[in-house]
Amino acid sequence: MERIEKNGTFFNPIMGVFLTAGARLILATAESLVLENDGYLAYCDTDAVFISLKHIKLVQDFFKPLNSYKHDVEMFKIEEYEDENKEKHLADNVWFYGISAKRYVLYGFENNEIKIFKYSSHGLGHLEGVDHEQW
Fold this sequence. Notes:
This protein is of the alpha+beta class. The protein has one domain. The protein is built from 2 helices and 7 strands; from the N terminus they run αββαβββββ.
């Protein structure tokens, strides 16, 4: 059966192209900025970039003029993790293991044990009964 999709009220194909292109330009600029300053980039996705800790402020300051809000908002969020006492910490000395674009884990070592800071199991829903620590 053939179906014809009708454009929604706010459909604008040009805006869709520019939003995606703009986001990629921002990520490429962040990557270039970090690499030019002897940093490292562990991972880059549609809306995220994992960079060396010492370069976070550099990237945030570089993009600060693009803030369109009246109050101070950082364009890039700093990822934090909670310890067993619910205290927040920056993930220092982070290791990255990536399988594909949406399957990765950021981890480190704490008291000779693996500590998982962040993970994505996108596309692994078909593996019933397997949690992030197992895979």
